[in-house]
């Protein structure tokens, strides 16, 4: 599959880096565009075989899949720029823009021919560059074999979940925005560690390893978090006092508020 990524910024660049490092799409079958040569040079640093260009219309020529990874306010302008050069019978279009619905994308792609391309919405998180993403995919009009091929590509880069379009918003909150929410907890823990007397780098190392251990226990034991929490709490103990203080400060409700307000 030849893939053109329109927009080599944080997310587009992370996707390019991850796919290039995988085994299913040769780096030479990836084309990435950007506004500046500096960004393209960074993309080349991931793998010199990745094709780069400042010309969006050039990039989509011959691509099997065109991935729109630009800022939301640039979407309409970019689609107008490239749609005349797309063959909707052969080329699929994907958007990684969180709030870009199939209805909106379809209206922008409508070229008056009565033919529409296969469309995907793809929401990874930035850990895709490391092969550790959770990627949500929804499709419109995709044959099973084409969807399966796309899922295989992104499954090399972490966990892939195929959902209906209404679940793309919740998926974005839980995994794409969620990676920032997880990091926010880590940041608060590191800050607390510093206030407890650790040097910043010491606190960082301790918090990261503690998180790895917590995740590994859940993974190997097949448990939910509360099961593992119960193993380290005793009535009147330090852990229980700390958890109670976190809840009194609104910890659980604050996390849920972040999720509900980001979908």
What's the CATH architecture of the largest domain?
3-Layer(aba) Sandwich
Q: Sheet with the most strands?
A: 8 strands, mixed
- How many separate helices? 12
**CATH class call of the largest domain:** Alpha Beta
Mean pLDDT over the residues: 95
Describe this entry's structure for a reader.
The model has no long low-confidence stretch (mean pLDDT 95). By secondary structure, the chain is an alpha/beta fold. β5, α5 and β6 form a beta-alpha-beta unit. α8 crosses α9. The protein folds into two domains: 162 residues, NAD(P)-binding Rossmann-like Domain (Rossmann fold, 3-Layer(aba) Sandwich); 83 residues, Orthogonal Bundle (ProC C-terminal domain-like fold), CATH 1.10.3730.10. The chain is elongated and about 70 Å long. The chain contains twelve helices and eight strands. The protein has an eight-stranded mixed sheet with strand order 3-2-1-4-5-6-7-8, with helices on both faces.
